[in-house]
Amino acid sequence: MKQAVMEKPGSIRFETVAETPPGPGEVQIRVRQIGICGSDIHVWHGSHPFTPYPVIQGHEFMGTVEAIGPGVDTPPPLGAKVTALPQIVCGQCNPCRKGRFNICENLRVRGFQADGCGRELYNIPAERLVILPDDFTADQGAFVEPVSVAVHACKRAGDLAGRNVVVLGAGTIGNLIAQVAKARGAAKVLITDVADYRLDVARRCGVDHAVNTSRESLEDATEAAFGPGGFDLAFEAAGVEASLRSVVKAIEKGGLVLIVGVYGKPPVVDMSIVGEHEIVLAGSMMYWREDWEAAVQLLASSVSIAPLVSRHLPFDEWPDAYRFIDANGPSIMKVMVDL
Ligand SMILES: [Zn+2]
Ligand SMILES: [Zn+2]
Question: Residue ranges of the chain with pLDDT lower than 70?
């Protein structure tokens, strides 16, 4: 079988290796499609602080069940469409003992600190598997992972019904948070970015208000969109200091700001506003299995992904996919690799 090994930043070697049958408790998946995300690009550039090389990338994918190893209690049907959670957790640390496996003290993620799905055949523990509906497209299957990020972030915010919500950053994750918040009953959702293309994609996905904050301030935009109702919930999915600072100032007193973005350098926030306004700053990290199950439901019903898929490239051209993303930055969204 063929696999893609990133030997060092900017260099992927395709190699043919012997097929390994699934081990005890494992299922073998024939990988059909892989989505590329922002973290993968950081690994390509050598700017992901926690990824050693060589590494097989890939953590957003759709495949089919090819073979079942010994000792799998409830084996999935052969040929079933599946995807899988990429986390490897210790089960022993304090967060794990509290059931919060996504923040395991010894967390490793396939595609980063362990090998991912960038290969024709992928063996993983059966308990990581998520079975998809038969009528799912490969795009839908590859979107379960990023939608789960959005589901988990929305869950961290509590009950969304009837609330006005601001999402900063209209990249894939911001877009999906806006859509999931709406599906979870948010009243109005306003999304911001500095790239008109991403805002246009958000509008096509049904987001109520899409605002370019390089032309309009967040205060003016939220006042126009929400009026006296204001907003008490925001998701910072841009990973940009200016965006975080602006929302801490603009959100209603007592509001909740969920941090989903990844910051290149530690942002500076005016903590006197946080203190005096009783603002809650909270993090959101990856997801739980129940978030994946909810993501499958949402992809089958209300979450729209067609406007987010910019291009498909064949497996052999994975490095070109990174070059395409680098060259087109803010005017594209998700790029897929087909096997
Ligand atoms: Zn990802
Ligand atoms: Zn742990």
Answer: none
- Residue 287 Cα to ligand 2 midpoint, Å, equals 14
Ligand 2 centroid–CA 99 distance in Å is 9
The ligand with the least distance to the CA atom of 59 is 1
pLDDT in tens, 282-327: 999 999 999 999 999 999 999 999 999 999 999 999 999 999 999 9
Tell me 264's DSSP state: S
Q: Could you say which ligand is closest to the alpha carbon of residue 147? A: 1
- Going from the Cα of 291 to the center of ligand 2, the distance in angstroms, rounded, reads 19
Q: Give per-residue pLDDT as tens, 18-69.
A: 999 999 999 999 999 999 999 999 999 998 888 999 999 999 999 999 999 9
**Bridge partners, residue 263, by sequence:** none
Q: Going by C-beta distance under 8 Å and a sequence separation of 6 or more, which residues neighbour residue 123?
A: 20, 21, 22, 23, 26, 27, 28, 29, 69
Of 119, 120, 124, 121, the C-alpha closest to 5 is 119
Burial of 141 (0-12, 13-18, 19+ CB in 10 A): buried
Ligand 1 centroid – CA 126 distance (Å): 21
Domains and CATH numbers, the chain: 2-143+305-338 (3.90.180.10), 156-283 (3.40.50.720)
